[in-house]
Amino acid sequence: MVSIALTAIAALAGFLAQGAVAVPSPVADAEGNYIKRAASCTFPSPPKTSSLSAAKTITGTFDGGNVRYDRGKGACTGQKEGGDKDAVFILESGATIQNVVIGADQAEGIHCLGPCTIRNVWFEDVCEDAITIKQSSGTSNIIGGGAKSADDKVVQHNGGGHVKIDSYCVQDFGKLYRSCGNCKTQYKRTVSISNITAKNGKLLAGVNSNYGDVATINTGSNSYSSLKSVCDTFEGNNSGKEPKTLTKNTKNTNCAF
């Protein structure tokens, strides 16, 4: 009887140990600090789709429960520049959006009017831009999640300040990050990119060296497959003209990788 009991206890302990290993690592520790981890490229399977008739404004924290949000059939108009009214979500300063899937039927994905946090948001098929950062200063965090099929840019940084991109998966894309090359109001912009999985892309980060932009890319933590360039520099302008490319895939003051 003792032998049988010990065997049963051992089996139960083994089962519990296996279960403990299977539990996903938390996004934050007990004090709320973000725990870095490698990007996942497993897109969620949304339980349903919600087509919005107008952009949804977020002021606090919005958890979408991995529901797919879009703007309805025919909303994507290719690389035609859109505005806030064309977005799926508009984030006010300090807002957080998490656990959301953005479907293909949209022209613009998320617009951040001030510093924002975008956590575990997945873009199934990027139209014009996935994320547009408009803050004048401060830091916006893009943590977890991913984007597919961006003909041009995933993250468009039109405002100032810093953008942090961590644990992100990007596939079949033109540029993961681009500091606006021809906005009417220009800023010095900075970006940090780490724990990224990038597959089949043209450019990870593009910055304007004449405005003092800096891209800090932790290549040692990133995984690249069929990526043409890690970082390019451009000569930006505020006249709306197409910016001139200065350097390609070259380490320098503006491209640290």
Give structural notes.
The chain has one domain (34-256): Single-stranded right-handed beta-helix, Pectin lyase-like (Pectate Lyase C-like, 3 Solenoid), CATH 2.160.20. The protein has a 17-stranded mixed beta sheet that branches. The longest helix is centred in the N-terminal third of the chain and has 21 residues, at 2-22. It has one helix spanning 2-22; strands at residues 49-51, 56-58, 61-70, 87-91, 96-102, 108-112, 117-123, 129-133, 139-157, 161-166, 169-179, 189-194, 197-208, 214-217, 223-235, 244-248, 255-256. Mean pLDDT is 90; it is low at 1-26 and 29-33. With 257 residues, the protein is mainly beta. A hairpin with an 8-residue loop joins strand 15 (223-235) and strand 16. Its EC number is 4.2.2.2. Belongs to the polysaccharide lyase 3 family. It is an enzyme of class 4 (lyase). GO terms for molecular function: pectate lyase activity. Residues 1-22 form the signal peptide.
